[in-house]
Write a structure and sequence with these properties.
This protein has 325 residues and is mainly α. The chain has twelve helices and no strands.
């Protein structure tokens, strides 16, 4: 029971955090200017008061704010995220239809950022003060200081328009009718630009963080002891320096994994990637509140799950660390 207590405590805290986020998101969305009933009536070409009053009654917009919040919270507990004003479809179905594309993009971008960032950070730390170190630091700073959407647009201009190597938009070739491994290869081909763009922005952070952590660990007593024992340099780097230097990297990776979904909004918009980031952007322009709230809820749950996974990764990286409740 004592071993389960920290896990139970963490789950209860996570539930409380998600409940708070649900309430805050609902109130912030309702404070936004604009009337979804007026937007829907305008699209229908019948923007008279009677029709708008009928729409408000149909979607519960005529109730007091506290009643709308209570009904919405009860629906979310039942995993009912409402009904899209614009698309006339259940929000859960819309999100589930788009979620695989977002997960594919964010996980690919995360792997690019973490893998390339750690590799460059280790290389930079092992050649500190040399030309390689300076070039890696310059490369990392350049991509960190460059806006994400600009990198995406320049990547499209270079690799799609000028060179013609990669597709510039979409998740797969429209009307191609591919199946099996051919379809998987086509999706991977479309994934290169958006995943690379999303990952490159965070490569700089992992590079600098890994470099600083490696430089701090490499001069500690246990590393000097390992050298005195005559262990090979590569073995010392992998087992002693890198393993201990990875703890701050794991910390940031857990936080940044959830933030990638936010970055995916820009990336999915630039590359017309059919994920929930693009869905949220369209819902914002259309004042489709249930869809926006549904996307916020799903991303909040994803952030909490990533944080729990980070705690578990801590235990794997250093078994001495206990998961606090």
């Amino acid at each position: 029971m004592d071993k389960l207590r920290p896990i139970i405590g963490r789950l209860l805290k996570s539930i409380a955090i998600i409940a708070t986020i649900i309430v805050l998101n609902f109130l912030l969305i309702r404070l936004a200017p604009g009337d979804p009933a007026a937007a829907m009536a305008g699209e229908a070409g019948a923007a008279d008061e009677a029709f708008m009053a009928q729409l408000r009654e149909q979607f519960g917009l005529d109730r007091p704010l506290y009643q709308q919040l209570a009904y919405y919270f009860a629906d979310v507990v039942r995993l009912d995220l409402g009904y899209s004003y614009r698309q006339r479809e259940a929000v859960v179905e819309l999100i589930l239809d788009r979620l695989p594309a977002t997960l594919l993009l964010t996980i690919s971008g995360f792997i690019v950022a973490l893998g390339l960032g750690v590799l460059m950070g280790v290389t930079s730390a092992m050649r500190v003060g040399r030309l390689t170190d300076r070039l890696i630091s310059l490369f990392a700073l350049l991509f960190y200081a460059t806006p994400l959407f600009w990198v995406g647009l320049m990547a499209i201009m270079l690799f799609s328009v000028w060179l013609g190597w990669l597709p510039s938009f979409g998740m797969e070739s429209v009307g191609a009718g591919y199946a099996g491994w051919t379809r998987a290869a086509d999706i991977a081909h479309h994934l290169i630009l958006p995943a690379g763009t999303l990952g490159l922005f965070y490569v700089a952070v992992y590079t600098r963080l890994t470099r600083a952590s490696m430089l701090e660990v490499k001069d500690m007593d246990f590393v000097r002891t390992a050298r005195a024992k005559g262990l090979r340099h590569g073995l010392i780097v992998r087992r002693h320096i890198l393993r201990n230097a990875m703890l701050p990297v794991i910390t940031f990776a857990g936080i940044q994994a959830g933030q990638l979904v936010g970055g995916a909004v820009l990336t999915e918009t630039v590359f017309a990637w059919p994920g929930i980031g693009r869905l949220a952007f369209d819902a914002l322009l259309q004042r489709d509140y249930p869809v926006l709230l549904g996307v916020f809820f799903v991303t909040s749950v994803m952030v909490v799950v990533f944080n729990i996974i980070t705690d578990m990764a801590y235990r794997i990286a250093d078994p001495r660390i206990e998961v606090a409740s």
